[in-house]
Write a structure and sequence with these properties.
38% of the residues lie in helices and 17% in strands. It has 3 domains: 36 residues, no CATH class; 187 residues, NADH Oxidase (3-Layer(aba) Sandwich), CATH 3.40.109.10; 39 residues. Helix 2 packs across helix 6, helix 3 runs antiparallel to helix 6 and helix 4 packs antiparallel against helix 7. With 281 residues, the chain is an alpha+beta fold. Bound molecules: flavin mononucleotide.
């Protein structure tokens, strides 16, 4: 019997995993009370915050047809644009700008560009797919109260940018990170967002007066919605299925399979998580 058992003393102990524990005797049993987070847990959000983040990610949708005319409050719009602006960017160059379109006449001009490109695109599909494509709604330009053109200024931080020295399109990738932040923040606000990419880039630049050295990356439709689809519309329409994530994972080498137990456990975990998600979990 040691001292703490004899005297009922309590003792603080730092465990190997970095947590602080209070050790005390309860009868003949040693009781341990965890005082701090696990070492690996210390930066993790609380369950509610983590659940909210994953809920945002898994319930985000590309929205085209469910916009309502309800205006988007300035504070809300400012928050989602702020979320976009706090995205990561190569060399912290923040190459993005946001052109906000609210005027019906401007939307009509962009819509006309869409109609033209959409007709051209239809001709690129064969047979049955062409008919299905024609019947898909692929934009909400006129219905959405706000349209936003997200652009990338390749000259924003001078000619040599940390991290862009060998892959020049890293500024475009950064701009897409901003779009994704905007998309997720919108979902959390209950706003629907749709990306319209079936547009002639040069004509879009001309319509919105975008300078020569600035590239449009995303044309977005944003607004309150009557509902969100639970699954991607293209999945519901039978256009494409969600791919199994475990088939897209490679270990060490793109072309080689792995029999490492860690890999096996990870893939198994993915299969069950994805099944849960696809079943509406
Ligand atoms: C780069 C990019 C371009 C897209 N362009 C269009 C588009 O022109 N029209 C459209 O309806 N959806 C467009 N989408 C939305 C996708 O169709 C949608 O994300 C996909 O079908 C998955 O559905 P979900 O976003 O609801 O999960 C685009 C998405 C991305 C990321």
């Amino acid at each position: 019997m040691n001292l703490s058992q004899k005297t009922g003393l309590k003792r603080l102990s730092r465990c190997a995993d970095g947590t602080l524990r209070l050790l005390s005797m309860k009868g003949t049993e040693m009781e341990t009370t965890k005082l701090s987070q696990d070492h690996t847990d210390q930066h993790r959000f609380c369950d509610a915050a983590r659940d909210a983040l994953y809920h945002t990610i898994f319930s985000r949708r590309g929205v085209r047809g469910q916009f309502t005319p309800e205006p988007v409050d300035e504070a809300m719009l400012s928050r989602v644009l702020m979320a976009a602006h706090y995205a990561p960017s190569v060399g912290f160059m923040q190459p993005w700008s946001f052109t906000i379109v609210r005027a019906h006449e401007t939307k009509q001009k962009v819509h006309a560009l869409f109609n033209k490109a959409h007709a051209e695109a239809a001709d690129m599909f064969e047979g049955e797919k062409r008919e299905t494509y024609r019947n898909l709604k692929l934009e909400g330009i006129l219905e959405a109260p706000i349209n936003i053109c997200v652009t990338c200024d390749k000259d924003r931080a001078g000619p040599v940018v940390i991290g862009r020295t060998h892959i020049p399109q890293m500024d475009l990738h950064s701009t897409v990170c901003a779009v994704q932040n905007l998309w997720l923040a919108s979902r959390a606000e209950g706003l629907g967002l749709g990306w319209v990419s079936i547009l002639d880039q040069d004509k879009l630049k001309e319509t919105l007066g975008i300078p020569e050295n600035v590239e449009p990356v995303a044309y977005l439709c944003l607004g309150h919605v009557s509902y969100f689809h639970d699954k991607p519309e293209l999945q519901k329409a039978g256009w494409r299925k969600r791919l199994p994530l475990d088939e897209l994972i490679h270990f060490e080498h793109f072309e080689q399979a792995s029999d490492d137990p860690y890999a096996t456990r990870l893939l198994q975990e993915m299969r069950s998580q994805q099944q849960h998600l696809e079943n509406g979990g």
